[in-house]
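Example 9 (inverse folding). The structure is encoded as follows.
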């Protein structure tokens, strides 16, 4: 079309100037040559635009190589996927108030359905790399698990009222069943958690769950032996029982961090998505350090509270019942918020910084000070509003803790999703979870 226009213009120009036929043909050839030259320049410009970014990247990589001496390969850092929580307190308040009223009206039977609504909201409001999580648990499956757990607790309550021995046996049965129930809960929770069409999985075995409770079982066995000997009529056995109980108590306290580490190692070392399987490389010594610092802060707060109470008791003007009550409440909030906030923040960072797979890693940078301040605010506003601020506190706590975690993939997540979608049948096999749909929110 451009050549036709050019030819028309050249013809009219040639006639207007009175050119001969030879001059006209010469003018047409020059016009066509100019048009071809113009089209070639346009193509070169388009190619240079496409190659521009690649050229800039190559030039920047060459500059990096020159700065490193020109002999080392460029090490590109892993992409970071931030976690955003887009929920709001006003939205969750409507869900929370309906769940609360229906749970009260149905005498607690609506609780599994309320929990399903809550999990779907919080999962859907959590975005990883711009893609929200999803919860696929069925409320009726959770209802069966809820009925099973309630039945076990009811039987234990009845057994404890029959006689102490029967109650002790019922407690032993419940404790023996607890790791299996915990294992079923983890399987159900993760199998019903989705992201970009992928389903998470829990690959731990039931035997591994019992191994995570090994220290607890050992301590319980020691206490049971001590109680049994103490109930004996023989004076010698009673003296041995006292020695066993006195020795078991400090040993049990010393083994709490180790038991906590076994619990977290089993939970974090068996998370899976697609072909990625996590491992947990945090050691027991790090848990002992965390518990030691928590114990130190607790002791300092206890000493400060004791000094304050002694000072108030010496002053008759301040030694009033309401003053003592207020001091006890403030002390409780201090211990709960300061010690609890510190422990939870450090535990989250320790847990997720130690969880990784060959292609995925996590970075948690939750500041303890920010969590302590938030807990103080949440508790005070919840007390002032007689509990109505609870859903807003729940959302604020979730936002602070979730947005402190970053996912560090070293694999192409698009390829991960595509590979899993190609093998969707095996992924959906674990999505069924367990028969009773147990979910304890662990």
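The amino acid assigned to each position is listed next.
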């Amino acid at each position: 079309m451009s050549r036709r226009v050019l030819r028309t213009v050249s013809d009219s120009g040639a006639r207007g100037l009175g050119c001969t036929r030879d001059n006209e043909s010469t003018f047409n050839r020059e016009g066509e040559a100019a048009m071809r030259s113009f089209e070639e320049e346009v193509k070169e410009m388009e190619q240079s635009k496409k190659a521009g970014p690649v050229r800039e990247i190559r030039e920047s990589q060459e500059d990096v190589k020159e700065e490193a001496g020109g002999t080392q390969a460029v090490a590109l850092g892993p992409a970071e996927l931030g976690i955003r929580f887009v929920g709001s307190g006003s939205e969750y308040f409507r869900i929370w108030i309906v769940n609360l009223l229906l749970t009260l009206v149905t005498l607690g039977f609506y609780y599994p359905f309320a929990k399903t609504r809550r999990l779907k909201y919080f999962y859907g409001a959590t975005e990883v790399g711009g893609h929200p999580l999803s919860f696929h648990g069925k409320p009726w499956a959770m209802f069966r698990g809820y009925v099973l757990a309630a039945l076990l607790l009811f039987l234990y309550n009845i057994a404890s009222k029959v006689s102490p021995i029967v109650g002790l046996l019922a407690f032993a049965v419940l404790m023996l069943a607890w790791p299996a129930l915990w294992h079923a809960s983890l399987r159900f929770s993760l199998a019903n958690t989705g992201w970009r069409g992928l389903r998470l999985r829990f690959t731990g075995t039931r035997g591994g769950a019992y191994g995570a409770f090994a220290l607890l079982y050992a301590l319980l066995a020691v206490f049971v032996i001590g109680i049994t000997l103490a109930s004996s009529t023989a004076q010698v056995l009673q003296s041995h029982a006292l020695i066993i109980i006195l020795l078991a108590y400090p040993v049990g306290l010393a083994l709490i961090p180790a038991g906590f580490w076994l619990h977290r190692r089993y939970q974090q070392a068996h998370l899976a998505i697609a072909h990625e399987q996590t491992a947990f490389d945090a050691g027991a010594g790090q848990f002992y350090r965390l518990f030691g610092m928590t114990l130190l802060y607790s002791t300092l707060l206890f000493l400060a509270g004791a000094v304050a109470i002694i000072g108030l008791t010496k002053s008759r003007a301040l030694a009033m019942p309401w003053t003592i009550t207020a001091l006890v409440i403030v002390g409780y909030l201090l211990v709960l918020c300061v010690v609890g906030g510190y422990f939870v923040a450090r535990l989250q960072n320790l847990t997720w910084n130690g969880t990784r797979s060959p292609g995925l890693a996590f970075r948690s940078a939750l500041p303890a000070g920010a969590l302590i301040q938030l807990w103080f605010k949440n508790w005070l506003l919840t007390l002032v509003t007689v509990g109505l601020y609870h859903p807003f506190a729940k959302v604020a706590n979730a936002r602070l803790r979730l947005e402190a975690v970053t996912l560090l993939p070293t694999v192409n997540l698009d390829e991960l999703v595509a590979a899993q979608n190609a093998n969707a049948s095996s992924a959906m096999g674990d999505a069924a979870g367990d028969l009773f749909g147990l979910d304890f929110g662990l």
